Amino acid sequence: QVQLVESGGGVVEPGASLRLSCGTSGFTFSNVGMFWYRQAPGEERELVARIDSNSPNTWYADSVKGRFTIPRDNAQNTVFLQRNNLKPEDTAVYYCKIRKTNCWGLGTRVTVSA
């Protein structure tokens, strides 16, 4: 009954910003850390951001530091991925995952191109 639903993807130009959302249900959201991964076409799935249950402790991949943030709203059981100054290499399907589990959403696709 655990549910993760990513949303907010789309097609944008380089330099644009997008906020992805991962709405959750079926578990105690406030007690767990959350991850955002992405998988570009033909490439390995990559961890890009995580937030601990005791936020604001966060971690970001070097490729996105300074551009992405991962806020969470425990009252809404939602974790966000705010992505600024998007680059073509950010093109990927983005997935939300519960820390220390193999519980994934179905992903939301982001395409960055001129």
Written account of the structure:
The chain has 114 residues and is an all-beta fold. It is built from no helices and 11 strands. The strands form 2 sheets. Strands 2-11-10-4-5-6 form a 6-stranded mixed sheet, with no helix packed on it. Strands 1, 3, 7, 8 and 9 form a 5-stranded antiparallel sheet that branches. Strand 8 and strand 9 form a beta hairpin. The radius of gyration is 13 Å and the shape is globular. The chain starts with a strand and ends with a strand.
Which labels suit this protein?
single chain, 114 residues, mainly beta, six-stranded mixed sheet, five-stranded antiparallel sheet, 11 strands, 0% helix, globular
Give a quick rundown of the structure.
This protein has strands at 3-7, 10-12, 18-25, 34-39, 46-51, 58-60, 68-69, 72-73, 78-83, 92-98, 108-112. With 114 residues, the protein is mostly beta strands.
Rounded mean pLDDT is 95
Beta strand count: 11
Radius of gyration: 13 Å
Oligomer: single chain
* Beta-strand proportion: over 45%
Binned, the helix content reads: under 10%
**Contiguous helical run count:** 0
* Neighbour order of strands in the largest sheet: 2-11-10-4-5-6
Q: What structural category do the secondary elements indicate? A: mainly beta
Helix-strand pattern, N to C? EEEEEEEEEEE
Shape: globular
Q: Segments where pLDDT lies below 50 for 5+ residues?
A: none
Largest sheet: 6 strands, mixed
Cα separation of the termini: 40 Å
